[in-house]
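Hi X.,

You mentioned you wanted examples for the new student's onboarding notes, showing what a folding record looks like when two proteins sit in one file. Here is a clean example. The first protein comes first, with its sequence line followed by its C-alpha cells.
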Amino acid sequence: MQMTQRDLAKVTGIPYSTLNAWLTRRRGTGGGISPDHLRALAKGVRLTVREMFEANGRQVPGDLDAEREAKLLRIYRNLPVEGQRALIQTAEALGRSMRAS
C-alpha cells in the first residue's frame, strides 16, 4: 500500500501542513526535517529509513549504522582496558534493558 503524506500525518499525529513543509524543505531544521526525525517517522509507521527518504524524494543517507559502529569502535580503542571492560558491561546492560522494554 502506498502511503501519502496525508496518511503519514494522520498516523504520526503531525499536522499535514507541518509534515509537508518539512518534506518539501520549506521549513523545519534549516533545509527540511532532519534525518533523525525522518527515522523516527519511519519507525512509527513501520517503514525502512530508505523507504521514507525515497518516498519523499530525499537523498538516502549513507550507511549510518556503520558510521555509528565505527565511532563506537574508535571510542573503545582509545579507552584503557578498564574503560573497555566498563563500556562492554554498559552496552550489555543497555541491550538487556532494551529487550526487556
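Then the second protein repeats the pattern, sequence line and then C-alpha cells:
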Amino acid sequence: MVRRTVTAITAACIALAPTVATSAPKPKPATEEQIQAYLADKPETARPLFRRALVEGERNQVLYLMRAGLAAMDAGDFRSAEGAFDQALAKIEAVYASNPSADKARSKFVKEAVKDFKGEGYERSMAYYYRGVLYLHEGDYDNARASFMGAQLQDQWAEDTQYASDFALMDVLAGWASQCAGDPGLAGEFYGKAREKNAAIAIPAADDRILMLAEIGRSPEKWADGRYQENLRYRPAAGSGLNSVTFRLADAEIAGQPGESLYHQASTRGGRQVDAILAGKANFKSTTAGVAQGASQVAMAAVQQANTMQSYGNYSGANNMAYAGMAAGLLSLGFAAASAAAKPQADTRYWDNLPEALLFATSPPLGAFGQIEYLNEAGVMSTRLIEPRPDPRGACSISWSRDPSGYAVPEVAPNSELKKK
C-alpha cells in the first residue's frame, strides 16, 4: 500500500508540475529588401529605431515603436510618428484597458522581462500624450482630447493595482483641445480637474490661441534590487543642466510653466512613493515556497510512520497514514508549482528618449515665428527656432520642441536584450 501511495505522489508530481506552453510559430524575419522598403519614407535620423521596431519581434516592438515615433516627431515627420504611435497604442490597449480580458492578461505567472513590453504607467501616458499632440497639429480636437484622457487613465494603472491619476498636465491639454474646439464649458471642467490635482498649474486664458510645448532632459532610468530583483526602482538620468525655458514671439517674452516631472510620475503612483511595485509577487513566491517546504516535510514524516506501522502489522493505520502523507505531498507539490511559476523580477526596460520634464505656455495670437531659449542656472544654454503652426481650422496654433533631441539615443534600448542563462 505504501509503495502504491508513493507511486501516486510521483504521478501527482508530474501532473502538477508547471507546463511549458506551446508558442505559436514565429513569423519569418523580414528580408533586407523588405526592411529597406519599410525605411524608405522614414526620416533618416530615425531609421535605426524604425529598423529595430521592424526586426525586434513582439517582445520589444512597442518600446521601439514609441522610441521611433518620438524620433520621427523631432525630425518633423509627423506622418511617420502617427503611424508608429498608432501601432504602439493598439498593442497597449489590448492589455491595459479596463475590462476583464485585459485584467486576465496581467498575470503573476510570467516573468516581467520576457513579457511583451507595454511600459509603466508614465510611459504609456506619454505615448497617448504624443498622439494627442499630433492630433492638435491636425486640428482634430475631439481625438486630441480623447488621447489626453487616455493618458490620464494610463497614469492610474500599475501591473496589478489601480492608483489615482495625478497627471494634471493631461487635464490642461484636454481642456485646451475643448477650448480650441469652441467648447468653453467642457474646457472649464478639465481645467478644474487639473487644479484639483495640482493647484499651481497654469491654466490658459479664454482668449489664448497659441500652445507652446517644450521638453528638457532625459527619461528617468529603471533598475531593480531585492531578493528576487523584484523591486522596481527609478533614478533621474544624468542631468543636462536645463531647468527652464523662455518662449519669444514677436516682442513678447513668455516663461515656460512647469507641466510635469516624469521622474515624479515614474517614482510615484497617485502622488505616493513606490518602493517595490512587484513586492506582492515576491511575497507570493516566498510564501508559497515556505508552505511547500513545510508540507513536504509532513509528507515524508507520514510515509516513514506508515512504513513503521506496516512493519508492526498495523495495516489499517499504515493505510491511513499513507493517505495523509499523500495529501500533504499533493499540497506541497501544488504550492511548489505556484512558487516556481511566479516570476517577480522587475522589468527594467525603459523608453529612454523621453524627457525628464514637460513645460508649456499659452498666449493670444502674437506672430508666426519666434524662438525658444533653453536655460540653466547660468543662463541660456541653447536656442531653437519655433513656428507655431495653425491648425487647418484656423482655430489654434501649436509649437513643440525639445532639448536634447529625440533621436540622439543608442539604437538598442536600455536593458532590452534578454540575459543568457
